[in-house]
Amino acid sequence: MMNEPLAYRMRPLKLDDVIGQKHLVGPGMILRRCVEEKRLFSMIFYGPPGMGKTTLATVLANEAGLPYRMFNAVNGTKKDLDALFLEAKLYPGFVLIIDEVHRLNKDKQDLLLPHVENGSITLIGATTANPLHSINPAIRSRCHLFEVKTLSDKDIMEAVERAIRSEKGYGNSVTIEKDALQCIARQSLRDVRYALNLLELAVVLSKDKTITMELLSSIPNVSNQRTSKEGDGHYDLLSAFQKSIRGCDVNAALYYLALLIDAGDMDSIERRLLVIAYEDIGLGNPAAVARTIQAIDAAKRVGFPEARIPLSFSVIDLSLSPKSKSAEQAIDQAAAAARHRSAPMPDYLKYTPVALAEEDRYDYGMPQLWKHIQYLPDALKNDAFYCPGNQGKYEKALAENYERLQRTPRSSQLRELKKQIRKKNGKS
């Protein structure tokens, strides 16, 4: 038993053992109530790695007294699935826990769906990806979605202290100083498994079973904490990076870039720079957007350590550029109108309008007509989604053109418009 890793020994077996996730398993919360009723529904847990999604799934099945099996979406085969379907026939309430459920290919989905739909299998999936983007709609529509939230430092410290107290852990044979406990929580990047592994290593290295900061500092990469590409802390760093550029603090932006480079995460840097270029700079300085793409291409070509130079070039350029979020705001407003105020388009805009007289049709041969036509549906004809910014020369020019065009009246009466234009041009 004691030869087993500490993290394995301390894995939760009951809901009360689960660290964090009180919004799901706390008193009166939805998953606890499901367990109390001995009834589970197909569901998908999503959230950062190391938060205990798969463990939570097994705890639910155990607590509900239901048979369950594990299946890995990456390595599991169709033959494995068929065997599980046969087993499910023998055990009512059979729970199938699928790790990395977003990796299920179409063939496996086709096999699984009828069993989930008829209730012979209760599916509990786990994924680190956003299920709205990564999970096949056919699977998603048959499951409830539950977010497994990032653990706090307090949660991690609770897990460490529990391992020290528990008979499955060290049975109070180990003591830990407060600053050392806090250090483990910080170092773990909010991953319980990593925190317990670090505690276990520290116990092995300690002579008197006392965990101190001095002891932790002797462990490589603990005293000088490096940036990790995993965990919520990495996303915090990316957030700080983008906000520094948005706030025109070039020095802060370069500092956070240096931390990201230290983590060796070229992919995240490149993606975030592109997002910043379009989301925060946008029409304020379109030339900077183009230069960002060039800098990213150069960084990819040369690789680290030289890649730091074009990346630095781009960060300085974006930080000191005029900012405009007008493009993002415009599409968001248009999307809101499309979702909540959907209306039919005018018939003359359709590719093949049916039973529409020639004089009421869009005329490709009259370019002078085009800017007078109403293109929005009648219900939205007075809506304006684009609100010009005035932070850069380019968008100021766009704003002037936009205002001029807004003063041009538009009409859905194409027949009348054509008459007016022909009359103006001296044609009958």
Tell me the structural class. Answer: alpha/beta
- End-to-end separation in angstroms reads 98 Å
Described by the principal axes of the CA atoms, the overall outline is flat
**Spans where pLDDT lies below 50 across 5 or more residues:** none
CATH topology of the largest domain: Rossmann fold
Number of strands: 7
Second rung of CATH, namely the architecture of the largest domain: 3-Layer(aba) Sandwich
Mind describing the biggest β-sheet?
5 strands, parallel
What Rg do the Cα atoms give? Answer: 30 Å
Count of distinct structural domains: 4
Q: What's the average pLDDT?
A: 87
Elements, N to C (H/E): HHHEHEHEHEHHEHEHHEHHHHHHHHHH
Strand order of the largest sheet: 2-3-4-1-5
- Name the CATH superfamily assignment of the largest domain: P-loop containing nucleotide triphosphate hydrolases
Helical amount among residues, as a percent range? 40-55%
Highest CATH level, the class of the largest domain:
Alpha Beta
Helix run count = 21
Features:
single chain, 428 residues, alpha/beta, Rossmann fold, Helicase, Ruva Protein, domain 3, Zinc Finger, Delta Prime, domain 3, five-stranded parallel β-sheet, two-stranded parallel ribbon
